Amino acid sequence: MEIFNNILIYFVIVPLLTLGGLAICRNSGIKAIRTVAVIGASALMVLAAILVKMFLAARGAGDTSEMILRTDVMWYAPFNVKLALGVDGVSVVMILLSAFIVFAGVFASWKMNPLPKQYFMWFFLLSTGVFGFFISIDLFTMFMFYEVALIPMYLLIGVWGSGNKNYSAMKLTLMLMGGSAFLMLGLIGIYFHSSTDSNSLTMNILEIAKNNAIPHNWQYVLFPLTFVGFGVLGAMFPFHTWSPDGHASAPTAVSMLHAGVLMKLGGYGCFRIAIYLMPFAANELAWIFLLLTGASIVYGALSACVQTDLKYINAYSSVSHCGMVLFAILMFNTTAMTGAVLQMLSHGLMTALFFALIGMIYGRTHTRDIRDMGGMMHIMPYLGVGYVIAGLASLGLPGLSGFAAEMTIFFGSFEHADTFHRVLTIMATTSIVVTAVYILRVVAKLLFGEVQDEHHRTLTDASWEERLSTATLILAVAAIGCFPNFFINIIRSSFNPVVEALQEAIPGVL
User: b or e along 186-207 (b: 16 or more beta carbons within 10 Å of the residue's beta carbon)?
Assistant: First the structure.
């Protein structure tokens, strides 16, 4: 079939083949299980690198198509549902991010116990949903992969998690499924208003945008449904409460993949579907969601300041940083939207690094309470240095990914000349100061304070697989910080169709 000539389909096939390979491994064959998982994760890294090269070659050759590597295969003719694939710059960098975190997550799960085979099977099923979502341009297939990415979270937390894991898994599942219900209603509404001709209704995002047939009164209904539906996964205030509990109970690699990639599905969906397909309502109602996302930024940072559990600190930090993504997308200009994608990249990598390091520290100390720890820089210097690098990236140190992302967001947000947008932008920038407070506080107490438990003096530093996992993420964080233009050049043109749709719907929008 023609679809197998498209590299994009292999981002779904490879995780599924890995899942199949794991299924035939013996439960006791830990070496074979690890080998299959590493091969699958490495293959995804190679595919992502090839995709980036192909995308840059296509753009360099003058291909200005909104999406490249397009493939449409009819799936269910009565509703015109197709397996429609395609990527732009935003999709490409999200796929690259996902591949990095899956690769690092496999090595962070090297000593997973019990049931390592079943754990990796669910892990790669979740990965299948993530990659499938980013390569799809059909509403039905996007939603299908979205659900495939969400469903494994319950078992991954409920079986392999820690602490109050059953409560956390159930709370996460119920809240995200509630968001999915809003999203499903929104997508059904979009489909039935996708064309003025009832015989040519479509679920293809590009065709819906081209038809521009959704009436303004329906946009007022469908935009909040889809934005809130995706916003729940993006931990938008006040729908964020599942995030801290879920992250606190999830195993290390699941926290990495969930915070690093899964939460990005929320921001990506808001941009790709809610704003692009309903630009009129997006502009009219943006002020409501700007207030909510602005609250996410400040509230998340302030909440992180009063936490003592390392995972809760990072979870509330994620609420703040993911709030910046949605905040920047709602600014509706190319600079801010570019910053939003850079923030998705930056936060994905640095929060995965944070959760990896926290899991490694917890595995040795059996506590995540900073009041019970201290002096770790002398005991485990590699993990200590890694934590400092992650913290500096989080507070926006120049030369690391956080600085490039946040500065692009705030510059783009301040392009608006009106008082409302500028006041909100100034309020959002206060999170930089608050972030510095809680990051430096944790670093000082955790790494440089007095040793609180004498048993900690005998702990070992990172093993080889832990060093490989964290080094991969550290190098990526540094690469974005030192060479942001490489990523900006990939993603910047992807916002032109959205900005043009906004300008057409509301003349005068930046």
Answer: bbebbbebbbeeeeebbbbbbb
Q: Are 305 and 390 in contact (CB under 8 A)?
A: no
Tell me what percent of the residues of the chain surpass a pLDDT of 70: 98
* Structure tokens that stand for 100 in this block: 């990095």
CA dist., res. 124 & res. 119, Å (int): 9
> In angstroms, what is the C-alpha Rg of the chain?
22
Report the candidate in 458, 469, 288, 443 with the shortest Cα–Cα distance to residue 370: 443
* Pairs from 27-33 (Cβ < 8 Å, separation ≥ 24): 27/115, 27/117, 30/116, 33/116, 33/117, 33/120
- Tens digit of each residue's pLDDT (9 = 90 or more) over 342-384: 999 999 999 999 999 998 998 888 888 888 888 888 899 999 9
Residue corresponding to tokens 């799936």: 75
Question: Is residue 33 packed enough to be buried (19+ CB in 10 Å), middle (13-18) or exposed (0-12)?
Answer: buried
Angle in degrees, CA 210, 216, 217, rounded to 5: 140
Residue type, 140: F
The answer, yes or no, to whether residue 5 has pLDDT greater than 60, is yes
Q: Which residue type is seen at 351?
A: T
Nearest residue to 176 via CA among 101, 105, 126, 106? 126
Asked whether the predicted pLDDT for residue 44 surpasses 60, the reply is yes
The conformation of residue 2, written as its DSSP 8-state character, comes to G
| Strand residue runs (E) in 44-149 | 68-76, 81-87
Q: Residues 469, 104: contact at Cβ < 8 Å?
A: yes
Q: Name the one residue in this structure whose structure tokens are 């941009």.
A: 271
Round to whole Å and give the CA distance between 85 and 145.
12
Cβ atoms of 374 and 446 closer than 8 Å: yes
pTM: 0.93
Q: Which helix (H) or strand (E) holds 284?
A: helix 279-305
Tokens 């109050």, residue?
Answer: 164
Helix (H) or strand (E) holding 267: helix 264-269
Mean pLDDT score, 167-181: 89
pLDDT tens digit sequence for 65-114: 888 888 888 888 788 888 899 999 999 999 999 999 999 999 988 888 88
pLDDT at position 112: 84
**pLDDT reported for residue 507:** 58
- Are 343 and 328 a contacting pair, CB within 8 Å? yes
Predicted local confidence at residue 506, as pLDDT? 66
